[in-house]
Design brief:
about 45 residues
């Protein structure tokens, strides 16, 4: 039982960490898109 809980906790930690990286990547993409739009508007 304890081993199963440890494995489950490790898997959940992996999902949480990968989700954080995904959200951070999306945020960077949105920021770059906004900068591109600003650059086009200034021209």
């Amino acid at each position: 039982m304890n081993r199963a809980l440890i494995v489950l906790a490790a898997v959940l930690c992996g999902f949480v960490l990968s989700a954080c990286n995904t959200v951070a990547g999306v945020g960077k993409d949105i920021q770059r898109a906004g900068e591109s739009i600003q650059g086009a508007a200034r021209r």
